[in-house]
Amino acid sequence: MLFVGLGNPTPNSENNRHNVGFKIIDAINIKFKLSKQKPKFKGLLTTGSINNKKVYAIKPLTFMNNSGICIRELIEYFKIGAEDIIVFHDDLDIDFGKIKAKFGGSSAGHNGIESIDKFIGKDYSRVRVGIGKPKSKISVSDFVLKDFDDEEKEQLEIILNNITDNLAILIDKKLDLFSSTINNK
């Protein structure tokens, strides 16, 4: 099983809405005591076991728009099928804090997902984390690259805990159950 968190690797991007995928991978690494992050496959890779299943978790360092390069190298090396990949990423079209897990589908204009689709196809699972839409007349690119505000940061901690607490459901590929469980907390 491979967990991928999408984001951008620059220090000033750390708390951006676009980096919610990185935050999820960090939370998984801490909760399940995965290995120390090592730079491999153009990303930061951790490994370990969750519920007696071998897992890999990676934060691509290729920047959002080239995430597929990193994933392709990793899955070819470890012989991981696309159906055993779960990608965590931000989604503007979902209310802040809501989660939608799905298998396959379109990128909906998300550049990180478009890159992954280009390099490995569309037959993988995605966990879309709602960041909501801008409330003012700010461009979408500026909005996703802005940091979470203080209230959102508090809520994000709860979301991260809910995701890690229910990761076993996701590992079992029960995507609808995972979404409903998280959204009902």
Report on the architecture of this protein.
By secondary structure, the chain is α/β, with parallel strands linked by helices. It has a single domain (2-183), classed as Rossmann fold (3-Layer(aba) Sandwich), CATH 3.40.50. It has helices at residues 20-31, 67-78, 111-120, 140-144, 150-165, 167-171, 175-183; strands spanning 2-5, 38-40, 43-50, 53-60, 85-91, 99-103, 125-130. A seven-stranded mixed beta sheet has the order 2-3-4-1-5-7-6, sandwiched between helices. A hairpin with a 2-residue loop joins strand 2 (38-40) and strand 3 (43-50). It is globular and about 45 Å long. The relative contact order is 0.18.
Structure described in brief:
By secondary structure, the protein is α/β, with parallel strands linked by helices. It has seven helices and seven strands. The two termini are about 25 Å apart.
Q: What is the mean pLDDT? A: 95
Alpha-beta classification:
alpha/beta
The CATH superfamily is identified as Peptidyl-tRNA hydrolase
| Strand order of the biggest β-sheet | 2-3-4-1-5-7-6
The parts where pLDDT drops under 50 for at least 5 residues are none
The CATH class designation is Alpha Beta
SS strand fraction: 15-25%
**CA-based shape:** globular
Using the coordinates shown, work out and report the CATH topology.
Rossmann fold
Oligomer: single chain
Number of separate strands: 7
CATH-scheme architecture = 3-Layer(aba) Sandwich
What is the number of helices? 7
SSE succession: EHEEEHEEHEHHHH
Distance between the termini: 25 Å
| Domains, number | 1
